[in-house]
Amino acid sequence: MINRSDLENFWTRGDIHTRIHLAMSKAGLNDKSLEIEDLFPIDQYHARGIAATVDLGKRMPISENHKIIDIGCGLGGPARYFAKHFKCFVTGIDITPSFIEIGNKFNKLTSMSEHVYLQIGNGETLDFDDETFDGGYSQHVTMNIKNRKEFFLEAYRVLKKGTFFAFSEHGLGPEGNPIFPLPWADTSEMSFLMSPESTILLLKEIGFYDVQIIETSEKYISGYEKMINAKPEKVEPILGIHVIGGTTMKQRSINSMKSIKEKRTLPFEILCKK
Ligand SMILES: C[S@@+](CC[C@H](N)C(=O)[O-])C[C@H]1O[C@@H](n2cnc3c(N)ncnc32)[C@H](O)[C@@H]1O
Fold it and tell me: Which residues pair with 140 in a beta bridge?
């Protein structure tokens, strides 16, 4: 079982504060107010970046002033995008303290602090009253959740009746045995994949209904190919997922792409109702 400090090291890959500060200085973004779009290259910490967040947003029935929870919010990039796009309020929780610290700093720099608040938390034991939120989502987090039932039960508990829960993840494919290291885990100690079929059954058992699923393998394969096959002579951009994911990010992405192609994993999005 992986401990808290190994988990923090896995996600931050050393001194993430300095890496971000240096990259933003080089990109001319330090010490000035920013638009949320300026941060998309580094604050969307999942495959396909902002494109995946926009896709998830198209499926979520969020209205102005809704109170939404983001479980496993990372650096808060998706939360800022949805808060601006839908004019809603997003509370994000994440288990990695450095992500929360940096994410709240990004909220200030983009003048989004009144609409987005991030706090340290564990998706398996949410620190909110029953029926607090008008909707919730979790983007590329559940692969790390061993106690998936507790995670979904908690999401269900904090949502008001008649609202939605959406999430995207890499599910377990029919061939199994993904190739490590992966973007979400260096070894099988941190990776807990479930097939789409078992996930749907579990959600229904908990009480979610109208469970809709979309398989996203092709989109992910082409997203990874674009990133991996970027022309070698092209200089690496200053801001990119490598700033957060460190030097092994490319190899981990190659393994993730191969795992999808070989049907070891199967990425999907789910939208369901409470
Ligand atoms: C791939 S990142 C995705 C971050 C964010 N959702 C995004 O799309 O930019 C996975 C995130 O899940 C968080 N995480 C992993 N296990 C968690 C848990 N039990 N509770 C809350 N967050 C968790 C990690 O700290 C990390 O920020």
Answer: none
Peptide bond preceding 181 in cis form (omega within 30 of 0)? yes
Q: What fold is seen in the domain 4-273?
A: Rossmann fold (3.40.50)
Reported as a single tens digit per residue, the pLDDT across 137-146 is 999 999 999 9
Of ligand 1's listed atoms, the one at least distance from the Cα of 184 is 1
Counting from 1 in the atom list of ligand 1, the atom nearest the Cα of 139 is 6
- Measured between alpha carbons, how far is residue 201 from residues 197, 229, 260 in Å? 6, 38, 22
Structure confidence by residue, pLDDT tens digits, 198-229: 999 999 999 999 999 999 999 999 989 888 88
CA distance 255 to 250: 9
Report which protein residue has its CA nearest ligand 1's atom 7: 45
Q: Report the predicted TM-score, pTM, of the whole model to 2 decimal places.
A: 0.97
Q: Is 169 in the pocket of ligand 1 (CB under 6 A)?
A: no
